[in-house]
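Working notes for the structural subgroup meeting. M.R. asked for a predicted model of this chain before we commit to crystallization trials. I am recording the input and output together here so anyone reviewing the notebook later can reproduce the run.

Input as submitted:
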Amino acid sequence: MFYDDIQGLLRVLTIGVLGYIALVFWLRISGKRTLSKWNVFDFIVTIALGSILASVIISKSVPLAEGILAFVVLIGLQYIITWLSVRSSKFAALIKAEPTFLMSDGEYCAAALKSQRVTKSEIRAAIRGAGILAIEDVAAVVLETDGSFSVIAHNNSGSKTALKDVF
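Returned structure, recorded in token form:
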């Protein structure tokens, strides 16, 4: 059967539109950080928000007001966590992963590759993606806290200030 009755379809349409508007509203209020590149907490919040929206739209047992309150709770918790992590380095260290060297001066860091479950072919792909043809031209490859790779080519200055928090 395609649907039970027209009222069910109208409910999904109405609640879907209102739920979507509420989610966009609260995400705009919470700021860009809520949906920035994901760390573990960002991922959890984003997936949970999608799950709540789907539940509100599809389940007749979840009222719109409860769904909106759930949005506010999750976005509020995300805001508090990011607010605390910006103001407390101890709190930030507790909840966020550290960046990891995967390659340094053209040499793979075997222990880091193994512990982070990254293959050499993924490193080479990141290097190619950075427009570098020779591994020897790579000063470092770093696995960032959001899971992305940063590829740093050798430069003439000798300074490595961008790698300060990786050591």
